Amino acid sequence: MCMVIFAPIFAICAFATCGGYHGYLQVKVDCSARRPNNLSINIEFGYPFRLQQIHFKAPLCDASREEVIFLNGDFSAAAQFFVTVGVLAFLYSFFATIVYVFYQNKYLKNNRGPLVDFLVTVTFSLMWLLSSCCWAKSLTDIKAATNPTEVLLLIASCREKENRCATTQEPFWSRLNTSTVFGFLNAILWSGNIWFVFKETGWYKTGQRYPSRTSSRKRSSEMRERLYSESSFDQPDDGFGPFRQDSFTESRGNYDKQLERQASINQSQVNFSLPETYLGKAVIYERENKVASQGPAIFVNEM
């Protein structure tokens, strides 16, 4: 949310303070000769800071003519690079804000939106840092090139001791200093947003979903040690929990039922078996001095 709010504002402040700058320098030349004294010279410069194209006319005190003087230095490359990065960052921030608010589903579809956003964020972070450093160095050179002392040394009349030259107005650098500060703030803001954009990508989610190989190997080794350390099947294991104990109790109950069923079948077979017959030896029965008849005896075993 901070990125969506502050990125466009900081980008506007960065390129607006740099691109809309106009400096003004005024010097005065006082000739000791018969020419008019207190001649003021106005020097104006601004974005894109091609100082070698800025010229002004200065009087020659010992002659009745003027000379054309050009400033030194071309700092347009760093200034334009800084402003271009600011404009592109503003446009992308504005476009990203619209996507976040109105097209969130399409942004997260197939994980393409977060990946593109991550790459663009990293690119803008590097571009802001590079452009801010280049612009800070160029601003230092611009200040040196437009220093009133250096400008007065370019005027031939001011190099003569009998003439007097002075600066009546110097340029203000607060606006360009502010642009440099906003450039580095943008670099910090975009660099800090890299982590939040990275969390939305599939790379971060994949690392959270699938553990590393070392952790999986440690877990598998611990699981094997737990399995081998169990002395009986009745003790539940941490890896399986109550499911293993329920399976053992269930199998034992089925086994008991099977034994009871087999015992009932054996008992029923004993109950419905045929009577057994036994043919023994001949037994002689004596009854009151009577000879008992001999013959095989049949015993019936009734169950």
UniProtKB/TrEMBL annotation:
Residues 1-16 form the signal peptide. The chain crosses the membrane at residues 81-103, 115-138. Pfam families: MARVEL. It comes from the Eukaryota. It is a multi-pass membrane protein. Keywords: Glycoprotein, Membrane, Signal, Transmembrane, Transmembrane helix. Residues 227-246 are annotated as: Disordered. It is found in: Membrane. PROSITE patterns: MARVEL. GO terms for cellular component: synaptic vesicle membrane. Residues 1-202 form the MARVEL domain. Belongs to the synaptophysin/synaptobrevin family. This is MARVEL domain-containing protein. It comes from Poecilia mexicana.
